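Recall that a protein's primary structure is simply its ordered list of amino acids. Everything else, from secondary elements to tertiary packing, is in principle encoded there. The following example makes that idea concrete.
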Amino acid sequence: MAGREARSATLHTVIALVEDRPGVLNRVASLFRRRGFNIESLAVGHSETPGISRLTLVVDGANTVVEQVEKQLFKLIDVVKVADITHLPIVARELALVKVACTIANRADVIQIAQVFRADVVDVADMSVTIQVAGDEDKNDAFIELMEPYGIKELARTGRVALTRGIAEPTKVEEDEPEEVREFHAQAGRRPKKALPFVSD
């Protein structure tokens, strides 16, 4: 438990708004691979703005310089905005689907544990149940740990998604980009993109 808490303390949540174009996610993944960034999880989906997708990255600050992750993301032409929201008040959640081996004899025990975690049974088979659990990573880790003695047949986790709690972020790209990144884009003849807020009051 102490090891899990120590590891959680080093994790950073980085948000990137990117233009919804073919190949953008591949370019982001290639950037991580080239730079050797240690990314714990990456979740991507549509945002509230048409044509803009939202990436939520979890980066281990103990092994990766988070500031470098931000700067390198800014250099991708499809990236509109980047922010490390770790130290802001945030709402963070992860969804996990856990297929647990069970029999008629112990199925009730598995379902009872799921109810304690406010998880939902989404599928029941002769020799297994599939449970959906949502919450922070610590909650999901604890649930999965309790399921391990029964036998986990399959496991899928979305990775963290997060929003700030009603705090308006700066909306100007020029104010957010590091100086070296502004120079990088200026040399390439690129104009700053239209800025987009992460949240609005």
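The CA atoms of residues 13 and 86 lie 5 Å apart. The longest strand covers residues 90-101.
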